[in-house]
């Protein structure tokens, strides 16, 4: 099985412009992501996909394979699909690892890879929610999955509701509430198809592209990971990430 890993690295960001170039303990965020992903031997190739010349040159400077992509893509999925169409090689699956995940763990990716079989269309990860504030936070995407570990629904709202408890007590029920971690695997043919789908009402309401895929009948396999690492959304997250590195003896 041949697997392509793509790291989308967009320059523009409302909350944090030029985020992939931000330094974390002296090293750019995009380099940290690339070093972790490219070290995983079960991946056939790793490519950084960017829309900005500066990111392109920085990626080249630390030895990454990098590709310029259209700056008008509505999502990282579309950017990843462009990379697939431009490669001269054939891949069975494509993995999308966000460029703001500088500490993405090998175990997380291996958990995702364990879901990949010929009949897998799409796959992603979730983690149990332990704090009520995460469950109620509109910026934390929640997912409900079936007994067969297929995604049933993604939402910014706290789901599922627990009728007989107050919201503050919902997380006391184990194995019920999960947050979605934004790392995706796509079967190569499915990736090209989902980028041609028209947006749906659910997607537009929640601002979650994966709802479009579910609306159109695609199945998303879900695997639970116990690992959650810091992501970088705002400039103030850099300091938090560096403190986390010290706590975990990372350089």
Can you summarize this structure?
The protein has 251 residues and is an alpha/beta fold.
Detailed description of the structure:
The protein is α/β, with parallel strands linked by helices. It has one domain: Spore Coat Polysaccharide Biosynthesis Protein SpsA, Chain A, CATH 3.90.550. It is 29% helix and 22% strand. Strands 1, 4, 5, 6, 7, 8, 9, 10 and 11 form a nine-stranded mixed beta sheet that branches. A hairpin with a 2-residue loop joins β2 and β3. The protein starts with a strand and ends with a helix. The mean pLDDT is 95.
Secondary-structure map:
Elements: E1 3-9, E2 23-24, E3 27-28, H1 29-38, E4 45-50, H2 53-61, E5 65-68, H3 76-86, E6 93-96, H4 106-113, E7 122-128, H5 132-136, E8 142-145, E9 151-155, E10 178-187, H6 188-194, H7 201-206, H8 210-215, E11 220-224, H9 237-247
Parallel strand pairs: 1-4, 1-6, 4-5, 7-11
Antiparallel strand pairs: 2-3, 6-10, 7-10, 8-9, 8-10
